[in-house]
């Protein structure tokens, strides 16, 4: 889903006019922020198109990448809790992602040899083959997007984006991911009211 739902970005002159009404609006800061969101949307769209064509979501891709050892291209095992921590999602969300990947035979849950009480998740040969087939086009798209920047410009933009990310973390820290609350117990159906006893009028005895 796009972060910026604007077809056309406002011109700088419009931001200058808006700043007269909203003193907290800094035109140059707002211009950079809107372009940052628009660029993020475009980059996400390019990658999402490729994922959708392969029946993949961003969350499932993240799990596959976390389970792939980048140094040797083989799988390594992680617990669901470790995967949730590395992905920055709740354990319940990670459980859902693992469930769908396991259903498609791309990952395997199995007891941890060091601690049988723990469950680890690893890539299956099918999952590893899928990832190895997906990544060349994924990396080609990334390289194509950044082809317009020189190596020096790329280093500069990484440094500048890092400063913005650090400022966001310091000024507006993210709340810890909350686990979903357990479902409430089923409601006890109300008791049906007891039938009212209708008293019959007493007949008077004849004198």
Task: Describe what this molecule looks like in 3D.
The protein has 207 residues and is mostly helical. It has a domain at 14-133: Arc Repressor Mutant, subunit A (Orthogonal Bundle), CATH 1.10.10.10. Helices cover 53% and strands 9% of the residues. It contains seven helices and four strands; from the N terminus they run αααββααββαα. A two-stranded antiparallel ribbon has the order 1-2. Helix 4 (80-87) crosses helix 5 (91-103). The mean pLDDT is 86.
Which terms summarize this structure?
flat; two-stranded antiparallel ribbon; two-stranded antiparallel sheet; 207 residues; 7 helices; mainly alpha; Arc Repressor Mutant, subunit A
According to CATH, the fold-level topology of one domain is Arc Repressor Mutant, subunit A
Please give the share of residues in helix.
40-55%
CATH superfamily of one domain: Winged helix-like DNA-binding domain superfamily/Winged helix DNA-binding domain
Order of helices and strands: HHHEEHHEEHH
The rounded Rg comes to 29 Å
| CATH architecture heading of one domain | Orthogonal Bundle
Task: Let me know the average pLDDT.
Answer: 86
Low-confidence stretches: none
What is the general shape?
Answer: flat
Distance between the termini: 92 Å
What are the SSEs and their pairings?
Layout: H1 12-21, H2 27-53, H3 58-66, E1 68-69, E2 74-75, H4 80-87, H5 91-103, E3 107-112, E4 115-123, H6 125-145, H7 151-171
Antiparallel strand pairs: 1-2, 3-4
Helix pairs in contact: 1-2, 2-6, 4-5
């Amino acid at each position: 889903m796009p972060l910026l739902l604007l077809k056309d970005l406002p011109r700088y002159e419009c931001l200058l006019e808006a700043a007269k009404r909203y003193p907290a609006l800094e035109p140059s800061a707002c211009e950079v922020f809107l372009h940052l969101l628009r660029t993020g949307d475009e980059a996400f769209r390019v990658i999402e198109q490729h994922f959708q064509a392969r029946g993949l979501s961003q969350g499932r891709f993240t799990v596959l990448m976390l389970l792939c050892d980048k140094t040797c291209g083989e799988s390594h095992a992680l617990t669901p809790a470790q995967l949730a921590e590395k992905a920055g999602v709740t354990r319940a969300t990670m459980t859902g992602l693992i469930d769908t990947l396991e259903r498609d035979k791309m990952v395997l849950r199995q007891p941890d040899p060091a601690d049988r009480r723990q469950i680890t998740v690893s890539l299956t040969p099918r999952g590893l083959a899928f990832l190895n087939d997906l990544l060349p086009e994924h990396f080609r798209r990334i390289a194509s997007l950044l082809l317009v920047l020189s190596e020096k410009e790329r280093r500069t933009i990484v440094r500048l984006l890092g400063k913005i990310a650090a400022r966001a973390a310091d000024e507006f820290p993210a709340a810890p991911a909350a686990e979903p609350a357990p479902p409430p117990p089923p409601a006890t159906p109300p008791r049906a009211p007891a039938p009212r006893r209708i008293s019959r009028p007493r007949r008077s005895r004849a004198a």
